[in-house]
Amino acid sequence: MFLVFPDTSTVADYVSSTLINTVKSKPNAVLGAATGGTMEPIYARFIEKTRQLQLDVSRLTTFNLDEYVGLGVDHSQSYAAYMREHLFGHLGFNKARLHLPDGLAESLEEHCRDYSARMQQHGGIDLQLLGVGSNGHIGFNEPGTSFDSRCHVVELSERTRIDNSRFFAEDEMVPGSAITMGMKDITDAREILLVATGENKAPILAKYFESDVTETIPFTVLKRHPRARIILDEAAASLLPASVFQRAAAA
Ligand code: F6R
């Protein structure tokens, strides 16, 4: 149910190895990409291993989970900039195959419809990476979002804006809204890896464990997914009973 590693570095080893195996077995795989602090060590390890193994990533297609409304690709806090800095800029990806929602799209509604449709045209996502918000959000699907939702515009909750303010300069406001893949877009993925590290994620992991599947804790939907794994470090797992998790060594 939960796979628990000693620390963030062993988590990064495991998740990056899973990504590498996907690329090896399916060089034209479609990956669902996440941003955020949790993913940084994972992408760093993936870059390192890809270089060591001289793996070709040019046939991969990626779809990012979300983007802030109002931030263009050149804004330092846009998720497009994050992806360039932490992953895309370091390896031989084919730019035409990298998809992110456009925070400056003229008609956001139309853009969202097109984004979900594009994912489906590419045959859906093979492996989706997810982080989780301290309120249980995945992508930017805040508590209460329908499990049937497709890509849409969302008003960010106060909790999420406070959590994400650490990435913005002191005098900068976290945008109030974002485009996100919907819950259905996410759960349509054939395989899902949700990663949570650090003690600030421990309370929401404990809630996940205690709760039934409910839209008020979005990531509980993973309990229904046939191939979803939850990867934690010891700190994030610290409020779970030890009997429900499997301790794993470094990859
Ligand atoms: C980011 C995303 C979010 C984050 C979540 C955790 O693309 O979709 O759901 O994964 O907010 O963020 P961190 O890793 O910064 O704690």
Give a topology summary.
Layout: E1 2-5, H1 8-25, E2 30-33, H2 39-53, E3 61-64, E4 66-68, H3 79-86, E5 98-99, H4 108-121, E6 127-130, E7 152-155, H5 158-164, E8 177-180, H6 183-187, E9 191-196, H7 202-210, E10 228-233, E11 245-247
Parallel strand pairs: 1-10, 1-11, 2-3, 2-6, 3-5, 6-9, 9-10
Antiparallel strand pairs: 4-8, 7-8
Helix pairs in contact: 1-2
The structure holds fructose -6-phosphate.
Fructose -6-phosphate binds at residues 34-38, 65-66, 131-133, 137-139.
List its salient traits.
single chain, 251 residues, alpha/beta, Rossmann fold, 8-stranded parallel sheet, 3-stranded antiparallel sheet, 7 helices, 11 strands, globular, binds fructose -6-phosphate
Lateral strand order in the biggest sheet? 5-3-2-6-9-10-1-11
Tell me the number of helical segments per DSSP (H or I, 4 or more residues long). Answer: 7
Question: What is the CATH architecture term?
Answer: 3-Layer(aba) Sandwich
Number of domains: 1
Q: β content, as a range?
A: 15-25%
Strand tally, please? 11
Q: Tell me which ligands are bound.
A: fructose -6-phosphate
Mean pLDDT rating: 96
CATH topology: Rossmann fold
Low-confidence stretches: none
CATH class group: Alpha Beta
